[in-house]
Design goal:
single chain; alpha/beta; Collagenase (Catalytic Domain); four-stranded mixed sheet; two-stranded antiparallel sheet; 11 helices; 6 strands; 7% strand; globular; Zinc-binding metallopeptidase; LP_HExxH_w_TonB
């Protein structure tokens, strides 16, 4: 309390000294009142992200938004334009279509999508993306994107499986998934040891990917993300490889479907159909023209 009183007295004294001064106040504000200079892409982002969805799409490198544990480089302008169009078409518009309006993404979507040009390396591992408290999603390695030859498998590996994965985290952090999901693979999770397990071995242990074997929340997010970004032929192939592990994956998928329907009124089958249809249309998109 003495410290607080001291600060208060110091502030009072400073005010008293100032009040005795005959100097007039400067009528110029220390805060800039000029409108920011926006390029064509900035205006497009306002109209396609900020105004309709209240999402700040950051493509310029900002020190405060970047993870200082990594040596990172900014996203190129043309790659950022392409990524902004892809995220809207493959992710935002997919959820808007399945829900029937923009309310769901406006309410639960991340408030910031942040692009980084380079990968995030950490002792031989690469971070594909991060989500922070349901407010911000960061996508890395944007500068490898080819706007003129988009390959959906590459796009899903680096970006869109990540987008669905991180958004699933946002959903279960808002309303947790059923406890039954915790029980399916109890005692089978590997923690940090997931890096030493191949996807094939993970499948046989009852996990859709090796990263899903980390812990239960990653398992849930990987189950949803891989289901919607792959077609039925791929999913059945994974179950075939899994053998006895397929029963664990099936149980977790059914629990994930029930959760999405009962909690968020999302039919995961319908969402998957929409994502798959849009994925097939990516090759026809103009990822360079902001007027398209």
């Amino acid at each position: 309390m003495k410290y607080i009183k001291y600060i208060a007295l110091a502030a009072f004294f400073a005010c008293g000294v100032c009040s005795c001064s005959e100097d007039s106040l400067d009528d110029q504000s220390v805060f800039s009142t000029e409108a920011p200079q926006r390029n064509e892409f900035d205006i497009w982002l306002l109209n396609n992200y900020v105004y309709p969805y209240n999402i700040d799409f950051k493509y310029r490198m900002e020190d405060k938004e970047s993870d200082h544990d990594y040596n990172l480089t900014p996203a190129d302008y043309d790659k950022s334009v392409a990524m902004a169009k892809l995220v809207k078409f493959l992710w935002i518009d997919a959820y808007t279509e399945v829900m029937g309006d923009r309310t769901f993404i406006c309410t639960l979507g991340p408030k910031m999508i942040h692009l980084v040009g380079s990968p995030a390396y950490d002792e031989g591992q690469i971070t594909l993306g991060t989500a922070e408290g349901g407010l911000k999603v960061t996508l890395y390695n944007v500068n490898t994107l080819d706007p003129h030859n988009p390959d959906i498998e590459v796009l899903n590996f680096w970006y869109f499986k990540t987008m669905h994965h991180e958004f699933t985290h946002i959903l279960h952090q808002t309303v947790e998934f059923p406890k039954e999901f915790y029980e399916v693979s109890t005692g089978r999770y590997t923690g940090a040891g997931w890096v030493n397990i191949t996807d094939e071995k993970a499948l046989k242990r009852g996990f859709i990917t090796n990263y899903a074997s980390t812990e239960v929340h990653e398992d849930f997010a990987e189950t949803v993300a891989n289901y919607v970004t792959h077609d039925e032929a791929w999913w059945q192939q994974q179950l075939s490889i899994a053998g006895d592990g397929a029963s664990y994956i099936d149980q977790k998928l059914e629990l994930a479907k029930s959760y999405m329907t009962e909690t968020w009124n999302i039919d995961l089958e319908s969402l998957r159909d929409i994502v798959q249809r849009r994925s097939s249309e990516v090759v026809r998109l103009d990822l360079t023209n902001l007027n398209d």
